[in-house]
Amino acid sequence: MDELFGHILRKKEQLLTLQPLPQKTAAKLDAFLTIDLAWTSNSLEGNSLSRQETELVITKGMTVQGKTIREHLEAKNHADAYSYIKTLQRKSRQDIQVDHVREINRLLLGQIDTQAGAYRKKGLMVDGRRFAPPKTIAGAMRELLAWIHRPTKEHPIALAAEAHSRLLVASPFADANGQTARLLLSLLVMQDSYPPVLIRPEEKGSYRLAVSRSFEGDVSVLTRFIVRCVDKTLDEALSIVQPSLPRQTGAPTEGLLKIGALAKKAGESVPTIRFWVAQGLLSVANFTKGGYQLFDERMVERAREVRQLQKTRRLTIAEIKKELP
Fold first, then answer.
1. Which residue in 139, 255, 294, 302 is a FRET match for 249, CA 20 to 30 A apart?
2. Is 46 in a helix, a strand, or coil?
3. Taking the CA atoms of the chain, what radius of gyration do you get in angstroms?
4. What is the pLDDT of residue 251?
5. Spatial separation of the C-alpha atoms in residues 289 and 275, rounded to whole Å
6. Closest by Cα among 248, 232, 236, 243 to 294
């Protein structure tokens, strides 16, 4: 698991080196995350809006023929709920309270359910599994938040995955427990500077299986699944922000190498170096005023290590990522 965490950490650091993003790029990334998060999370619960239709509802306020009012509201509401968790992102984990979780649910169910944000008053059974009885929900939620607040050296994504599972075990609301749990999951990883967690519709089976295993006490499968989702989201975020070549201001550039110099020292072609950067094997240290990538001298040796692993052990890119520190 440590190798997986190290792999996504390198990508996260790569994304952070591109901060602050130009306004247009930041807006583009935010729009992508807002729309895809709403589309993917709602799709997992049966919403039939496509990604394009979800975008039209959220950004244009359009009505899609043949779709229900609820489906339209779910798209709009999810965007509102995501905006809300972004306001909580800068808080510490210990600052997140029960009322914040209830507000997430209230926003998700706005104009859909009059009990939005309120704890359910009836028993709940899904696929033969009984969830927490209504009289135990308030206590279960207090216990969940106390568990989230506890001092721990656990990786933030592992903690977030288990918090997500624990909220689903309680399923405290009459509706939208899945979307609420996934937004809590995203909030907790966003507090550690990762992007929100996108779980694609085609991954529904794997996701359901991982959640089921977590209900049985094995959260490791769900954690690995979430790490893979975060990895893919980081790739998508980097593909959006890297072409714009944003600059860091005030950071030192002396002694750093342009991509051509790095390629020459490492004995590689520039396209090869670009590919390895895009794959997360090499990290960008800074940018010139003209927007060109700059690299630390250490990337020369790292590039040589990548080539050596390819030549001597014939490792794939994925295997090399696990091999290198």
1. 302
2. coil
3. 22
4. 46
5. 23
6. 248
Predicted structure pTM score: 0.76
pLDDT tens, position by position, 179-215 = 999 999 999 999 999 999 999 988 999 999 999 999 9
Q: Which two tokens stand for residue 317?
A: 């890119």
Q: What is the C-alpha to C-alpha distance for residues 98 and 140, in angstroms, rounded to an integer?
A: 10
First to last CA, the chain: 13
Provide the b/e sequence for 245-270 (b: ≥16 CB within 10 Å).
Answer: bbbbeeeeeeebbebeebbebbebee
Give CA–CA dist 321/325, Å, rounded. 8
The range of the structural domain enclosing residue 152 comes to: 2-243
Nearest C-alpha neighbor of 261 from the set 296, 215, 222, 214:
296
Q: What is the DSSP letter of 198?
A: P
User: What is the per-residue pLDDT across 217-274, written as a single tens digit (0 to 9) for each?
Assistant: 999 999 999 999 999 899 889 888 875 444 444 445 567 888 889 999 999 998 888 8
Distance from C-alpha of 49 to C-alpha of 58, rounded to nearest angstrom = 11
Q: Which of 203, 222, 243 is the last residue of a domain?
A: 243
CB atoms < 10 A from the CB of 94, how many? 11
Q: Which of 197, 222, 243 is the last residue of a domain?
A: 243
Given a cut of 70, the residues of the chain with pLDDT beneath it are: 243-254, 287-292, 325
Return the amino acid letter for 291. G
Q: What is the tally of structural domains in the chain?
A: 2
pLDDT of residue 226: 96
